[in-house]
C-alpha cells in the first residue's frame, strides 16, 4: 500500500475528489483517506508518480509519507 501526505484536504468533498481522481486511473484501486492526519493510502497497481499527479490535478499538495 502506498501512502502520501496530502495538504489542503478539509472535508468530504476533498475525500471524494481525491478518491475519484485516483479511481479514474484505476477503477479497482482501494483508496483510504484520513482527513485528520492528512494521509491518503492507495492499494493498487498505479505507481506513486501517477497517484501524485492525479492528486495534484485536483489542487492538493502531495508528498510521499
Automatic annotation (TrEMBL):
PROSITE patterns: HMA_1 (PS01047), HMA_2 (PS50846). InterPro entries: Heavy-metal-associated_CS (IPR017969), HMA_dom (IPR006121), HMA_dom_sf (IPR036163). This is Copper chaperone. Pfam families: HMA. It comes from the Bacteria. One of its GO terms (molecular function) is metal ion binding.
Amino acid at each position: 500500500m502506498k501512502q502520501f501526505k496530502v495538504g489542503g484536504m478539509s472535508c468530504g468533498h476533498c475525500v471524494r475528489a481525491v478518491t475519484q481522481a485516483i479511481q479514474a486511473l484505476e477503477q479497482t484501486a482501494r483508496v483510504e483517506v484520513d482527513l485528520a492526519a492528512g494521509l491518503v493510502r492507495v492499494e493498487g497497481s498505479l505507481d506513486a508518480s501517477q497517484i501524485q499527479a492525479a492528486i495534484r490535478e485536483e489542487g492538493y499538495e502531495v508528498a510521499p509519507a
